């Protein structure tokens, strides 16, 4: 069973709890073991960088250092913001010896040392690359037939650019959904930002962004929006009622983590992946 | 004699991460503004802000809400034909304005970032409910009621815990932070 250094991030122990439990269940089902880092700290999301850049990299590096110490090779984050921060901090550590020296001086205070040797990955990448679409498809016992899913990549999963990947029109999420038997819809907003980082600091702008996303998904007849990030999920699910109040709309589209959809397709008991009765009836009504 | 740096140079100097092209390479094509999901809520579009920086309009830039309205989605950065990391430039502007203590009155962003960092220094973990609650007084009465109802629902549905978690080696983490930035005694 391949093991991964798993960095859940703060959201997964509060608002994103269902993401956490479904990630663990699905991984186990696919023969992967996510080993949670010991004593990890917050990655800072988008809130450290306005204060101090070096502090931001140092706090992220503490988690990378703990992961390196575990002896595992892959650092896996289910949250797009955690993933982006860990990915770039790790790559700067490799390229910039001076930065690494500054950070390591600070890390000494916690008896840690970072080298930038982890392979930083998002959970969806791990499933697609290490298990593979075909293997996943073979394990589907409850295909999501007829379920029209809006694959929502959001922003920081795909941007900034890491290598030569497609940042405008990625396709891997669609591929995964098709393997589950679902029908991925095409819509323009799939990589457009949901405004998650603005929900407290600029509510008006954030709700406008959620509104546009919901509108696009619903117009294209999605039954459910699938997310890869706790920020997107909470923002799009929880603030739907506020969007309705603000814009006079009546959206009530379920929002689920991609791991929950995988769990249903793999035949995992719904309550073990945090899937409530309302969501389940929706998924099942289309399976019939 | 100290050389006085141009505003664009000052900003570039605090853009470690981007490794992108200098701000002066901007073509003023407007791809950034056209790609920005928050542009209609900004006083100046990203293109205008870059123009103002290049022309040394420091006061106007610092008074604008633009960089605090950036959602950090990096759409501008990946599309810029001149290769400028515009989203990172927005972060640099935030840092600059925080250092100078100059930003538009009434913005939540600067205070939010500061409280967020304080929260991490005090506990090592972030905790959304506490953060959101801090800013409720800035919302309208209707928003506060809505937010309260929503939070209660989230707690009841088991989605939201009532108490935040802390890292175990908190003293070490705080010592680590002190090696980067000067902070006073923490709780």
Explained architecture:
The complex is a heterodimer of chains A (288) and B (187). Chain A has 288 residues and is an alpha/beta fold. Chain A has two domains: 2-123, Glutathione S-transferase Yfyf (Class Pi), Chain A, domain 2, CATH 1.20.1050; 133-287, 3-Layer(aba) Sandwich (Rossmann fold), CATH 3.40.50.11810. Chain A has helices at residues 17-29, 53-69, 80-95, 97-107, 123-131, 133-139, 172-179, 203-219, 230-238, 240-247, 258-265, 277-287; strands spanning 2-6, 32-36, 74-77, 119-122, 148-152, 183-184, 224-227, 255-257. Chain A has a four-stranded parallel sheet with strand order 2-1-3-4. A four-stranded parallel sheet of chain A has the order 6-5-7-8, with helices on both faces. In chain A, helix 5 (123-131) packs across helix 6 (133-139). The longest helix of chain B has 16 residues, at 141-156. Chain B has 187 residues and is mainly α. Chain B starts with 6 loop residues before the first helix and ends in a 9-residue tail after the last helix.
**Greatest contact pair?**
A-B, 65 and 64 residues
Q: State Rg of chain B.
A: 19 Å
Straight-line distance between termini of chain B: 43 Å
The SSE order of chain B reads HHHHHHHHHHH
Average of per-residue pLDDT values of chain A: 94
Distance between the termini of chain A: 34 Å
Shape of chain B: globular
Number of domains of chain B: 2
| CATH-defined architecture of the largest domain in chain B | Orthogonal Bundle
Nutshell version of this structure?
The complex is a heterodimer of chains A (288) and B (187). Chain A is an alpha/beta fold and 288 residues long.
Could you outline the blueprint of secondary structure elements for this entry?
The complex is a heterodimer of chains A (288) and B (187).
Chain A: E1 2-6, H1 17-29, E2 32-36, H2 53-69, E3 74-77, H3 80-95, H4 97-107, E4 119-122, H5 123-131, H6 133-139, E5 148-152, H7 172-179, E6 183-184, H8 203-219, E7 224-227, H9 230-238, H10 240-247, E8 255-257, H11 258-265, H12 277-287
Parallel strand pairs in A: 1-2, 1-3, 3-4, 5-6, 5-7, 7-8
Chain B: H1 7-13, H2 31-35, H3 46-54, H4 58-63, H5 66-69, H6 75-79, H7 86-100, H8 109-123, H9 128-135, H10 141-156, H11 170-178
